[in-house]
Amino acid sequence: MKRSTFLLAFLASLIAVSVPSHANSDAYFCASKGYLAYELREGITLGQAGHELTVVRFDPQHGIRKAGTVKLKDFQVHILKCSEDGVEIAGYGTVASGDPPLTTCVIDFDGPQNEPKIQECADNPADVHNWRMDGPEPGNLGQYAGVKSIPLESPDPDHQYQLVFDVSNTKVGEDSWETHYKTELIQHDARGNVAQRLVVYEARLIASGVSD
User: What's the predicted TM-score (pTM) here?
Assistant: First the structure.
């Protein structure tokens, strides 16, 4: 008989959704023309303090740059949508008893650098919203990505941008191995050469199997 014990150790870049029904998961993202938004949660991503949504912009003037981060209450993300004007993020937290409220936050952009700013964030205890009927599920930067790369739309006529997902496995013991997840936002020039890159997510999953 073989019993497998899984130890999760997530390492995430601070410069730095696809199945949102996965309990206790994070690193969900959305993208619109010229920017990427993603969320990380404390207790899931190692070293992460609180629940945060980060916006990374990419344009011809500045290339790839971190535009800012907003703090959110903790909830499991089920909806994450990006538009030209802002981001909508929603999900369910935890409560001692009964059904948790649906938390919905709207983030818009402010200032000369288009920093993210919370416009409103509200709980609706009576909302029985069926997120499964709300369109495509958000993508994930980590172990639930399921793709190798995603092209991103930008206002930059001289470069192309894409998210590139890398997964590698390394044996670290007689009966254990490490899975390394790394996701980068990459800028390519007209010749296809890498001009700029930014790690937006990095995590490691350590797994060991113990035979009885």
Answer: 0.82
